[in-house]
Amino acid sequence: MALDRTDLFDIRSLLSEEERAVKDSVARFTDEKVLPIIGACFDEGRFPKELIPEIAGLGLLGATLPEEYGGAGLNAVSYGLICQELERGDSGLRSFASVQSSLCMYPIFAYGTEEQKRQWLPRMAAGEVIGCFGLTEPHGGSDPANMKTHARKDGGDWVINGSKMWITNGNLAHIAIVWAQTEDGIQGFIVPTDTAGFTAQEIKHKMSLRASVTSALYFDNVRIPDANRLPNVKGLKGPLGCLTQARYGITWGPIGAAIACLTEATDYTKERVLFGRPIAATQAVQLRLADMARRITLAQLLSLQLGRLKDAGAMQPQQVSLAKWNNVRMAIDIARDARDLLGGAGITTEHCPIRHALNLESVITYEGTETVHQLVIGRELTGISAF
């Protein structure tokens, strides 16, 4: 029997019935609704907002949260499969869902009050309230402790001043989860984006994540009540805990991008005839396609085991770093090589590899650069921090 060229080790057989159903439903959505429009969205620099109701209707926002808060109660592997199939469409779409679920809904669920959970999470799961995550600052990058945004207590309120940079969903968002320095350490705040003094400015001229909204956020004496503070965490543990959730999903997402590139490169090389035969009939091309399949298979096994560890409550942040490093590097290399196999045709967005390659330039940078994750593993191996 012929193997599934995108699943050579039959990962599907290791999934539960529910996990397979989740994967299939998101795959259908990507095939039917995302792929027909996403190339044009990338060309136009436009996020397809019209897809948000259906994304929410499929239960993809806050999918792992309990149903009482609007979530679907899915396990971590199912969430990973959601990320994989969305990113098979485009990294920008996966980023939207990842930020909403892991960086905005998760901190409210994990660090918020019961009142905050009831107020925000069901509407966020329904796509009625969109969130963004304000951690990165213009000068900060990989050093979030070097945070300049600060919040000062003033009676029963907090007054926030500062700025954040490279914020996905910034100009779409109704609320921002903002991390700021206080006299009592770094704390998180829920900031409605219609609050006086809050400004979001969309970042233009991007060559990556063009089908995504990226913004700078500015806070000029933004006043919010203490009821908007996330009371159950202080220090970098809060935002870093959110990033671990999001990075877990990122280990899965690029697998989808790589699968899309391998599929298109394989089909193209079988159809492209040079010197009297398809270029897929040459050893050089088959070696490259085989190497893509090998690397995708290893990434699939890595993320599946990571998901099983997460569902067992045994996942460690260092393991997430290893998987994020490996899988994004795998995907960006495959996207670039697939682009090359398509020759001149590969430079247009009529084919997906150049779009995925450009998007993955952002994915390999955000939520921990490749170097940062390498150093996390180096520290784990040696016990010495080289940051």
From TrEMBL:
It is an enzyme of class 1 (oxidoreductase). Pathway: Amino-acid metabolism; lysine degradation; Amino-acid metabolism; tryptophan metabolism. GO terms for biological process: fatty acid beta-oxidation using acyl-CoA dehydrogenase; fatty-acyl-CoA biosynthetic process. Keywords: FAD, Flavoprotein, Oxidoreductase, Transit peptide. Residues 235-381 form the Acyl-CoA dehydrogenase/oxidase C-terminal domain. It comes from Denitratimonas tolerans. This is glutaryl-CoA dehydrogenase (ETF). It holds the Pfam family Acyl-CoA_dh_N. GO terms for molecular function: fatty-acyl-CoA binding; flavin adenine dinucleotide binding; glutaryl-CoA dehydrogenase activity. Residues 132-222 form the Acyl-CoA oxidase/dehydrogenase middle domain. Its cofactor is FAD. It comes from the Bacteria. Its EC number is 1.3.8.6. Residues 16-128 form the Acyl-CoA dehydrogenase/oxidase N-terminal domain. InterPro entries: Acyl-CoA_DH_CS (IPR006089), Acyl-CoA_Oxase/DH_mid-dom (IPR006091), Acyl-CoA_Oxase/DH_mid-dom_sf (IPR046373), AcylCo_DH-like_C (IPR036250), AcylCo_DH/oxidase_C (IPR009075), AcylCoA_DH/ox_N (IPR013786), AcylCoA_DH/ox_N_sf (IPR037069), AcylCoA_DH/oxidase_NM_dom_sf (IPR009100). The keyword Transit peptide applies. Belongs to the acyl-CoA dehydrogenase family. It catalyses: glutaryl-CoA + oxidized [electron-transfer flavoprotein] + 2 H(+) = (2E)-butenoyl-CoA + reduced [electron-transfer flavoprotein] + CO2.
